[in-house]
Amino acid sequence: MLGVLVMLNNFFHDLSVALFTCALLGRVALWRSALAAPAEATPAVLALDRLGRRLTSWSLAAIVGFGAVRLAAFEQYEWIPALGRDQIPALAAKHVLLVSLLLWAVWAARRARALVARRAP
Questions:
Q1: What does the pLDDT average to over 64-81?
Q2: What is the DSSP string of the chain?
Q3: What is the extent of the structural domain holding 34?
Q4: Residue-wise pLDDT tens digits, 48-57
C-alpha cells in the first residue's frame, strides 16, 4: 500500500511541475504580449499576472512538498534501480538546471512586470 502512495506522490509531483511550467510559460506569453499592447490594457495584464503568480506559487509549493516526500522515499523505492542506470548524476544535473531556469524566469518576470507597470495609465 505504501508503494502505491509513493507512486501517487510521484505523479502529483510531476503534475505540479507540468502545471508550474505551463503557468510560467503563460506568464511569459502574457508579458511579451503586454509590451506590444496599448497602455490601456495594463490593468487587465496586471490582474492576469496576479492570477498567474498565484498559480505558479501554489504549484511551486506543491513541487517542494511532494518533492520532499519523493526524496524521503527515494532511497527505499528508487535508489538501487537509479544507481544501476547511472541516473543519480543526471537527476542532480537536471535539478540544478531547473532551479537555474526558475531563478532566471523570476528575474525576467519581475523585469517585464516593471516595464509594463511603468506604462500604466
A1: 79
A2: -HHHHHHHHHHHHHHHHHHHHHHHHHHHHHHHHHHHS-GGGHHHHHHHHHHHHHHHHHHHHHHHHHHHHHHHHHHHHTHHHHHHTTHHHHHHHHHHHHHHHHHHHHHHHHHHHHHHHHT--
A3: 2-118
A4: 989 999 999 9
